[in-house]
Amino acid sequence: MQRNPTRRHQRTKSTAPEDVPEVDLSEEDILEAMREIPGYIDITTSDFRIIYELAHAHAVDRLFTHVRARDLMRADIEALTPELQLVTAARILVRQGLKSLPVVDARRHVVGMFTQTDVLRQFGAESVLALLLAEVERDGAPFNRHTQQPVGTMMTTSTVTVADDAGFHAIIAGFHNHAGRGMPVIDAEQRLVGMLLRRDFMAACHVGRVR
Prior knowledge:
By secondary structure, the chain is an alpha+beta fold. 38% of the residues lie in helices and 11% in strands. The strands form two sheets. The chain has a three-stranded mixed β-sheet with strand order 3-4-5. A two-stranded antiparallel ribbon has the order 1-2.
């Protein structure tokens, strides 16, 4: 394919990689990019796509090879236990400024996750505001029957965990597999050692989004 030798491929310093959203390349995108390269290049659009994807994967590996879950996790979290009453678990969540916490057994093996959504579900509310309105309509009457329920009856048991030595790709895969704000981090003996928050991971790696 013949290129226009007077045309040059330019990028301004203000356009950082993280400023550009991740998109799927179309054939026209690839052709337009190739037209900006001076001279002649004997390469098809399919070849270009393969090279781009391989180069992108290598770049990610190089840039984030140092990333490990243990370095980004919060090790000082206070985990919950299945027998804790809802009101106690709620106080622990509020005290730590979190919306979810892992639930562990006596060996510190993760048996579930307890989230703000679990609390709302217990009260039959769709949001914190809906719960507040329900409380007002009940003239402030306490929900004793619900607040004394043990965490083990409300927690989500299908929990996604990540190993403490997990790297960038394993962490990304974990966050892709569930919509929660954090994942429990476990050691080689499957014991809880911390919690990796989605926002901490995104900030540390400058990741624009993790679906």
